[in-house]
Design goal:
Layout: E1 4-13, E2 21-26, E3 47-50, E4 70-73, E5 76-79, H1 89-93, E6 99-102, E7 104-106, H2 108-115, E8 127-131, H3 140-150, E9 155-159, H4 165-171, E10 177-181, H5 187-194, H6 199-214, E11 217-224, H7 232-245, E12 248-255, H8 261-266, H9 281-293, E13 299-303
Parallel strand pairs: 2-8, 8-9, 9-10, 10-11, 11-12, 12-13
Antiparallel strand pairs: 1-2, 1-7, 3-6, 4-5
This protein binds iron/sulfur cluster (2 copies).
One iron/sulfur cluster binds near residues 59, 60 and 94.
C-alpha cells in the first residue's frame, strides 16, 4: 500500500499558489538548503521535538525509551537523534504534550478526504497545494493529485525541481499550477548552499516550461537570502534563464524571514542564518529592477516581509 509521509496540513493559506489553499507539507527533501524555513521537513524519518514551554518536569518520559535515546538533564529533555526510531513511546508517556513526533503516514485516499473538507473556501482560483520537503519524491503524491483532480479540485505542486524527470512528468497531467524553485544559477554556489548540483533542476525546468506552454501555469520562486542568493548577478542570471525557456506566468522573489528559528532550536541545530537581517525594501527594489530588466515574464513581484532601510 502506497503511503504518504507528511509533516503538516495548513489551511487557509494565501502563500502557496493562487487563491486560498490548503497545503500538505510532505516530509523528506532532496535538497538541504542552509536557510530552509521548514527544517523538520528535510529528513524523511520521524523526529521528536521537545517543547520546553510545555514541559512540567514530571519525569514520566524517563526510562520509557526502548532505544535509550531520551535523556533528562539539567537543561531539559535531550534526544539522541541517531538512536531515536520515532516509536512515540515518549510522546504517549508525556501528560503535558511537551513531546511531539514530526511526521505522519497516511494513504492518499485518506489524505484526499481530509484535504477536500476545505472545498468551501477554495472558490474559483484556490485549491490544494502539495509542498514540502519535496512532494514529488514520494510515489503517493501522483496518486493523491489524481484523486484530487477526480474531485474537481484545482491542484498546485511546490517543487524544488530536484527529482527524477519521470517523477515530474508523472505529476504534471494532474497539476494545474507548478511552483518551481530556482535558487542559484552558479552551480558551485548551488552545491555550497543546497548540498546538490542544479543541473537536474535546470533540465526539469525545461520540461516544466514545455508543459506550461501547453496548458499549465508555471510560477517560478526564488528565495532571496542574505549573502546567499541575493546578488544582482544571481537574479539576473535566473531571469535570463526564465526568459530563455519561456512559459512562466509569474516570478516571485520571496524575501528571507527568520520565523523558523525555534524549529532549529527544537532540532538542536545551530542555524547559520539565525542572526541574518531581513532583506531591506531598498535592496528588494534593486533586485526587482534587475529581475524586470530581464523580461523574464509578465508578472514579477516580491513576496514576504521586508526590513527597514539600511
Ligand atoms: S520516539 Fe521512541 S525512540 Fe525516539 S526518543 Fe521517543 S521513545 Fe525513544
Ligand atoms: S513527560 Fe513530558 S512534561 Fe514530563 S518531563 Fe518528560 S517532556 Fe516534560
Amino acid at each position: 500500500m502506497t503511503m504518504i509521509r507528511y509533516l503538516d496540513i495548513q489551511r487557509m493559506s494565501s502563500e502557496d499558489g493562487p487563491g486560498l489553499r490548503t497545503t500538505l507539507f510532505f516530509k523528506g527533501c532532496s535538497l538541504a538548503c542552509a536557510w530552509c524555513h521548514n527544517p523538520e521537513s528535510i529528513a524523511k524519518k520521524f523526529q521528536i521535538h521537545w517543547l520546553s514551554s510545555r514541559c512540567i518536569g514530571c519525569g514520566s518520559c524517563e526510562g520509557v525509551c526502548p532505544n535509550g535515546a531520551l535523556l533528562r538533564g539539567e537543561s531539559g529533555v535531550l534526544i539522541d537523534r541517531r538512536l531515536c526510531t520515532g516509536c512515540r513511546a515518549c510522546v504517549s508517556a508525556c501528560p503535558a504534550l511537551a513531546l511531539e513526533c514530526k511526521g505522519t503516514d497516511a494513504e492518499p485516499d485518506v489524505l484526499c478526504r481530509e484535504l477536500i473538507k476545505d472545498k468551501a473556501y477554495f472558490g474559483r482560483d484556490g485549491g490544494v497545494t502539495l509542498s514540502g520537503g519535496e512532494a514529488l519524491l514520494q510515489e503517493g503524491a501522483v496518486e493523491l493529485l489524481r484523486l484530487l483532480k477526480a474531485e474537481g479540485i484545482q491542484t498546485a505542486v511546490d517543487t524544488c525541481g530536484m527529482v527524477f524527470s519521470e517523477q515530474l512528468e508523472a505529476a504534471l497531467p494532474y497539476t494545474d499550477v507548478l511552483l518551481y524553485d530556482l535558487k542559484l544559477m552558479n552551480d558551485a554556489d548551488h552545491q555550497r548552499w543546497t548540498g546538490r548540483s542544479n543541473s537536474l533542476i535546470l533540465r526539469n525546468l525545461g520540461t516544466a516550461a514545455r508543459w506550461a506552454k501547453g496548458n499549465g501555469r508555471l510560477w517560478i520562486r526564488t528565495p532571496v537570502i542574505p549573502g546567499a542568493t541575493d546578488s544582482e548577478e544571481n537574479i539576473r542570471a535566473i531571469g535570463e534563464r526564465i526568459q530563455a525557456i519561456g512559459g512562466a506566468e509569474r516570478w516571485e522573489l520571496c524575501a528571507f524571514n527568520n520565523l523558523c528559528i525555534d524549529k532549529y532550536r527544537r532540532l538542536d541545530i545551530d542555524w547559520a542564518f539565525q542572526n541574518s537581517p531581513l532583506i531591506t525594501r531598498r535592496h528588494m527594489e534593486q533586485l526587482l529592477a534587475v529581475a524586470r530588466s530581464t523580461r523574464a515574464c509578465e508578472d514579477i513581484r516580491a513576496t514576504g516581509a521586508l526590513g527597514n532601510e539600511e
